[in-house]
Design goal:
Length: 247
């Protein structure tokens, strides 16, 4: 008996992933009891409702992205290899892959902050911070989960979380070592005390011809820009996907 081809395995994986998302969505939706209404003063009840709504939105979003990715792959496979035209039935506004490159070096990236800071950013624009692995800059991760696991446990268990999805033009990007522009002694175990870079490095790298930096301090890739104008668009997305007080 011939073993299944990689294509068959991939199709099965896609089908299983979609079934898993649909099952999770059905379970979360079915768990809601329409006969139960929260009293106006019942804070815990309202928080539970909000968390359920966030779970449904995230599952629906994941299912949409999964279907859109399959559609794009099917459309791409139907185009002859010799064809130079780019055809796709997927709407251009959909971000099919977290952190994926679009035309040029534009990526969909994520930034987690507090509610107050997040609302201020959406009303105006991103502004460079005062310190960090690469000095004062605007830091992004390739997915909301990357932002989440980089945060401290205290931040993860707080309802004061604001997750922003941004379309960022990274331009010419310079790869950096794991400690970026901070002292080489800095690592994931001592970055609170090693003395992270507190300088503004934007002008320095722009003179070298770079618009952005990328590095991995040990817990996942990060991207740094120095000008808020490089963010094409941004919006808040629901987060976290579950009650942070139950895990």
């Amino acid at each position: 008996v011939k073993p299944p081809t990689s294509g068959v395995n991939e199709d099965m994986a896609v089908a299983l992933r979609r079934c898993s998302l649909i099952s999770s969505l059905i379970i979360v939706t079915a768990s809601k009891d329409p006969s139960v209404t929260c009293k106006s003063e019942d804070v815990e009840c309202h928080e539970a409702e909000e968390i359920e709504e966030i779970q449904v939105q995230l599952l629906q979003r994941s299912l949409q992205l999964n279907v859109a990715r399959e559609t794009e792959q099917s459309a791409a496979s139907a185009v002859p290899a010799s064809s130079s035209s780019k055809s796709s039935t997927v709407p251009p506004e959909w971000n099919l892959t977290l952190g994926s490159s679009a035309d040029g070096n534009v990526k969909t990236l994520y930034h987690m902050t507090t509610a107050a800071a997040g609302q201020s950013i959406l009303k105006s624009q991103f502004r460079p911070g005062h310190s960090g692995w690469c000095g004062g800059g605007i830091y992004f991760s390739p997915s909301p989960y990357d932002c989440w696991h980089k945060a401290s446990p205290k931040s993860q268990k707080s309802y004061d979380i604001y997750m922003i999805e941004a379309v960022v033009d990274l331009g010419r990007m310079k790869p950096m070592p794991n400690y970026c522009t901070s002292p080489a002694r800095c690592n994931m175990w001592n970055f609170y005390t090693c003395g992270l870079d507190q300088n503004s490095r934007g002008e320095e790298f722009m003179k070298e011809g770079y618009d952005s930096l990328t590095f991995n301090p040990g817990d996942g890739q990060e991207y740094v820009i120095f000008e808020g104008s490089r963010v094409h668009s941004m919006k808040r997305i629901p987060w976290p996907p579950y009650d942070p007080y139950t895990w």
